[in-house]
Amino acid sequence: MIRPTRRAATEADYTRRRLAQLAVLGIAAGAAPAALPGPASAATGTSAKAPSGPRPAAKAPSAACAHDERARRLAGDDPVLRALVTALTPGSALPQLPPPPPVRLFDNLVLLSAGWVSAMAVLTDDGIVLIDALTSPADAEDLIVPGLRAVGADPTAIRHIVVTHGHPDHFGGAQTLADRYGARVHMSAADWDLLARTRPADAPARDLDIADGAQLTLGGTTIELHHTPGHTPGTVSPVIPVRAGRRHHSAMLWGGLKPPSTVAELRTFLASVHSFRAVMRRANVEVELSNHPNDHGLERAEQLRHQPPGAANPFLLGGPRTQRYMAVMDAMLRGRIAEKEEAVGAAEAAGTAEGVVGAAVAHGCC
User: Fold this and answer.
1) 216: enclosing H helix or E strand
2) Residue 213 dihedral angles phi and psi, to the nearest 5°
3) How do residues 176-205 score in pLDDT, each as one tens digit?
4) CA dihedral 146, 149, 151, 156 (to 10 degrees)
5) What does the DSSP assignment read for 7-73?
6) What value does the mean pLDDT take over residues 76-95?
7) What is the pTM of this model?
């Protein structure tokens, strides 16, 4: 039943980005290389003199650098938050990892992974809600179905498939599972429209639209589905109740992390961070999940797989730490927005917007 309701960056990375900014500023100013003090000129027999008077003040760090530095300070030595900084650093790429065996992250939550992208199965008394469906029909056949069986779950009990966003690595196996088990496929209207425009291979047939704040209830388990546009126009982020023994917790899964390219889209993404962060506070979210290995998640899954019974669950971060996760995301996005705006300003000053902005965006600012 569905009811609508209201790589932490290295010093080398930052040095390269800073040099790129200086190059942009040099182009914007139309500067030629300045004469350097040194030995007598062969042509004149004179030597250059240092300018008299007080030395100019050092240039203040850019706003983009300040936001990035704030994100690094917030992350500290926390491996989950440091992985998030790395993932949101321009130029970073997802690690290409082999598919790990399936694992129960909580009593009612199973991680099913292709290595570089993952799905989650929420187990209820009346069936399974699958969050994402990996990359292809082959993934459905070779990873999702046997993965559920390996942890003692019955794939024929898949009742709903929630697709977080309209990219093939998240919907690829959905139609195969829907056809086989009669599952309903849910996606936001904006991303159903995206599929209609782009017509990708293996796209599921349009089924159910996800309204912002919708509640999907199955077997006494209610999953909240919130619109968090930015990665795509209709990205959805779930809030999932999970349990470990008699303990119950609230988990979040950010639906799509890679930032978009334009300032307007980045501002939409940032607004989604703010609105979902408020949802997390209200729901007392203590667990962080991701559908890509951009949060130290597969390492934590391996830790969980091998740790003794009764050890602390590495996905249970607690409320303050999950809020800090969102604060790191906020700071990194503000840095990207500031970087693009600074590049545009420098380009406009130089009158060569296209070339300068391209260089600045490609290399970063810090």
Assistant:
1) strand 214-218
2) 80, 10
3) 999 999 999 999 999 999 999 999 999 999
4) 120
5) ----HHHHHHHHHHHHHHHHHHHTPPPPP---SPPTTTS----PPPSPPPPPPPPPHHHHHHHHHHH
6) 95
7) 0.80
